[in-house]
Amino acid sequence: MKPIQSKYLLFIAVITLIIGLLAGFTLGSNFASSRSSWPVFFQAYRILENHGLRDLPADPAIEYGLIQGMLQAYGDPYTSFYEPVQHELNTDQIEGSFGGIGVRLEADQSGQVLLYPFPDSPASKAGIKDADILLQIDGQNIAGKSMEEIQALLRGATGSKVQISILTSAAGAEKQISIRREKIPLPSTTWHIAPQEPRLGVIDINVIAASTPAELERAVTDLLSRGAKGLVLDLRDNSGGLLTAGIDSARLFLAEGIIIKQQYRSRDVETYQVEEPGPFAEIPLAVLINHNTASAAEIIAGVLQLHDRAFLIGSHTYGKDTIQLVFDLQDGSSLHVTAAEWWIPGLEPPIQGHGIQPDYPVEPDGSGESSSRELEMVNQLLFVKE
To answer: What is the pTM of this model?
Structure first.
């Protein structure tokens, strides 16, 4: 073929491709509103609209329902859709802090929402008292709203203001208060010395957030200063969180070795390992797990077990070895898409479908005594009887 003909055909191919992409974009952008794209759906919609006993839900409920239906057909259990309120609260939890006024919400028997300010919080400084009744947020009545919706309305950018209307618990008078939001920590980690064993520090991690590694360092340092000679990490009912935070948390307790490998579609395998000995690599350690220990929490438990760094006590974990990317949508909702998988090299059986197996099984018996039985076992494993 002559060079001039090759260039001409290449030019035509490029123009065709561009036209195709533009057409696809145009069709895609109008996909949800085009009746020709959804003939069966709109036929069913009209039938329901004309003959259904109840009114059709208002927007965006139908659009959200379509997304949920699409994900159900997609068939991946961890690819999920979060509505705006759910997305905001989930993001706050994973980030470990949020812009807010520092109050606990509680509903009384009549359905009124009561406010309980944290000490030294913006709400407390603004004069909010325990059991003040919340009526409005920025002019919106809260009647009929869920606790999640109310929490989301109270939260916002640090430094921004929110105006609330309350009914004071003392005088019963309605009052308008403007409060500037501040950064409110949302701890992922709590800790204490075991009451029956002053040598044992107990660290409860409820989610793997961005703040978890730093919180863990503070917890261990504090417990050691109070006389702890061994530690137990309680990862029961921890459904995971940020993968990188899980890796960094595990690094605190390891001297060397590979933590995980991960792979995204059509990409090379990536390896995460211990780069330098962790500050707590020599402290006697145990980990509590159960069926609800999942994802990034399983990384911590699994790698500590593999490197003979900790005893695992409890029941087998959930078995989630995939990574989700979070895509923010234009209305504040989000789509969490399974995009990669991870594994701990050398750990058998594989986590998917099996979970991590405990070294010392302790199944809950429904009596509420599982914690004491597990902590007793921790003491026997970590401390030599004198």
So the answer is: 0.78
